[in-house]
C-alpha cells in the first residue's frame, strides 16, 4: 500500500517495495481498499529485498513494525534511511468487517505519514 500511495503523491519518484519475508501475493483486501481511493495495486507483487541490496538509493524507508531491526545491510549507496512504522493489517484478528476496517485505518495512516514525509522534502 505504501508503494502505491507514495507513487500517487510523487509520480516523478521511482518507488519500489520489497520485504525480508514477502508474502506469496498481494493481500486482496489491500487491493480493495487501495481501489477505494483510486489507486490500482492489483498488478503489484511481493518482492524479496535481496534484489535491491546492491543498488544505490536516495531513501530506504522501512514501514513494518519489526522491519527496522530485521532490515538487511544495503551494500549500495543509501543517502537516507527512515523508519515510518505501520501496523500489519493482515495480522489483525476479527470479523471480516473489522479486518477491512483495519486495512482502511492502516491505509489512511500510511497516506497521512507519507504526505508529511513529502511536505518535509519540499521545505
TrEMBL record:
Gene Ontology annotations of biological process type: response to arsenic-containing substance
InterPro entries: Ptyr_pPase (IPR023485), Ptyr_pPase_sf (IPR036196)
Residue ranges of every copy of the Phosphotyrosine protein phosphatase I domain listed in the record: 1-120
Keywords tagged on the record: Arsenical resistance
SUPFAM superfamilies named among the record's database cross-references: Phosphotyrosine protein phosphatases I
Record keyword Transmembrane present: no
Pfam family for this entry, one: LMWPc
Protein name: Arsenate reductase
Lineage of the species this protein comes from: Bacteria, Pseudomonadati, Bacteroidota, Bacteroidia, Bacteroidales
Gene: arsC
